[in-house]
Write a structure and sequence with these properties.
The protein has 140 residues and is α+β, with helices and mostly antiparallel strands. It contains four helices and seven strands; from the N terminus they run αααβαββββββ. The two termini are 20 Å apart. It holds the Pfam family Ribonuclease_T2.
Length: 140
């Protein structure tokens, strides 16, 4: 519901995404095509209790996909120095071609901009030690 309300209703302006079924089917197709975890594993970046410099993760992703994704982190807990990756976001054109997430949005949906749906804990990662967790729990 969250993903459809925040992103799908704007994406529905495109014929190829104008229903919940089309939207989620395309999301699953792109997820499988990106195969993020497999590529990171092949590059030696494994989820778990290992820490990486954020730059190493960014370089690995850029080398595989030839675009810059947006990586968002959970801040370190009090007394700790290590941030945790909360989300790796890939950006696409309207034709589903990967694009740099650093590029400005063209024809974005104004109604979809800043709807609060539980990602307020995420922020742009610092270029420091980073944990790539096997799963993420958000604490409120």
């Amino acid at each position: 519901k969250h993903e459809w309300d925040k992103h799908g209703t704007c994406a529905a302006m495109l014929e190829s995404l104008n229903s919940q079924k089309k939207y989620f089917s395309k999301a699953l197709e792109l997820y499988e095509k990106l195969d993020l975890n497999s590529y990171l594993l092949k590059l030696g970046i494994k989820p778990g209790n290992t820490y990486y410099q954020l730059g190493v993760i960014k370089e690995a992703l850029t080398s595989v996909y030839n675009v810059t994704p947006k990586i968002q982190c959970l801040s370190p807990e009090q007394g700790e120095e290590v941030q945790t990756i909360g989300q790796i976001k890939f950006c696409f054109t309207k034709d589903f071609i990967l694009r740099n997430c650093t590029e400005s949005k063209v024809d974005s949906c104004p109604a979809c901009g800043n709807m609060p749906f539980g990602t307020e804990e995420l922020s742009t990662c610092n270029d420091t030690l980073t944990n790539y967790p096997s799963h993420v729990l958000l604490y409120k």
